[in-house]
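Take a record:
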Amino acid sequence: MAASSDQRRRRLGFSRRAKAAPQRSPSVCQLGFETLEDRALLSVSLSLNGPQTIVPGATLNVSTDALIAQSEMSLVINPTNPLNVVGFSHRLETPTITVELYVSVDGGLNFLVSEIDTANDGLGAVGSRFDPALQFDANGVLYIAYGYRGQATAPLRNTLLVVARSNDGGVNFSNYIAVDQQADILTASTTDTDTPGLDKWYIATGLDPLSGNQAVYLAYVAFVTEGAGMSAGTDAHISVIGSRDGGTNWTPRLVINDDSAVANFDSASYASPIVDSLGRLAVSWGDTDDTSIMIDRDMDGLWSNAETFGNDVTVRTGVDVARGAVLPPSQPERGINAAPMLEVWRAVNWLYIPVVEKYQGSNTDLDIWVGVSSDFGANWTFNRIDDSGGTEFNPWLQVDQTTGAVNVLYYTTDGDVGTGNDDVRPRLAMSNDGGATWTRTFLSTQTSNEGPAVPNNGDYDGDYLEYIGLGVRDGTAHGLWASRYMAGGTDLDAFTANAAFVSSTGDNRLFIGERGGVDDSFLIQQSPANPAFLEVWVDGVREFTGLSATLDHIIFNPGGGINTFNIGSLTGISSVTINGT
């Protein structure tokens, strides 16, 4: 494969968003304190106290494309620099589909838009690139994955699963590798209706406990023809591969769903992996045959044989939401799936999973339930996050690893139930008590409509496809979703907005401690790149970058030694306290 890092780019600034006025360099207070007692904490933590209100920012069109639609997108935040926000989406060109990246280094004020094509991966200009997925690792290395199919009509070549990596936050990519491939399941149709050999992959990164390196995992479904003659059929293999050398070498495909392993013709998809703080790997998926959500776990990663994937565990039963059968007015052509996307809160290694379910058997009143497991998937408790009479679908769940807050972004028709039930808006729900109770707000008031179910009527026949983008870190949420282009045309564009979390009691607290040295330096300032964000640096290392609107109080708990505090002009912060002086 070609390992080109060149991409076609267009830089976009957004006049629709009122940017902050140019800021003078913050006035800096340089204070030296000798601490009288040791009250050290581990670096920086954020505590969200009291009921929280979600406060969205302005809605931005990051694609601004009046001719080509964007749909089905993901978004991630760089843990080493949360101002680096990256989205990944379909670009629905005809006759082929490509994928498109949106890279921001200023917290979402501006984006660099790049299309990935044959100039990058060397696979040719004819084939379609589809199902974009991406993830940062703990070191700030960004991985992307997508599929490639060679022709637009039958017979098709193999489906390739392609992975690439970026060391500069998504601006450039290298090491494009086809990490797996599988022959498509052919039909007699002359149109592109064949089942792809590989489909629906998601990426997880985390510790490999054997080597201590950062590992990257892909979970996906491989559709394989098994048997012969009248006994032939298609089996869905829930598959996992991994790399612990930066994506250069990958393990062979490992099939983990028990139904497939015992030679049954399983119907399963939406494999979603996570890695917890101990390096344990878990993968969830939806089993259509059993109307269930399943999970399997490898307790020491792919490179140790001490513990491997075992018996599948049933997470949820009675989940009868399937794409071909549930076609509400808001998603009339693509339909809706159960969307079981797995997530982990690494501070305590709790697992979370969202599931779309019917309310009293309705195909239009769909609700989202979130399950939580405190024992790494053995047992689950579910709570409903939204009980409107509308259609809620395409949820994406993210835990803020800084606070432990659970967040879900999804589409809803709430507000349009009695007038067509087909206008959707993105809604963000947040729980600060482990998923027991939820607060919600529309991330944008902009509405979008993809109906009716008439092919080639000017809308996109795939509607909003099957997932939405959400990243949350340091008390700040970023969403990325598809919505009808409002400035002309009928296509879907990629829109984004961020959101802060505001305490009703004015008691959100940022605690800043030492990193382990005797003498420590602390810098706290409004970000030069985006003054709406507050940056905290401890001993020259970025430890926190989040929206200032989330914060009320800042408390320093330095350790022993001589400590230096550089505190810039802060906006909206009620108090700054330095303990132990």
Observations:
- The two ends are 59 Å apart (CA to CA).
- Residues 1-42 have pLDDT under 50 and may be disordered.
- The first helix runs from residue 118 to 121.
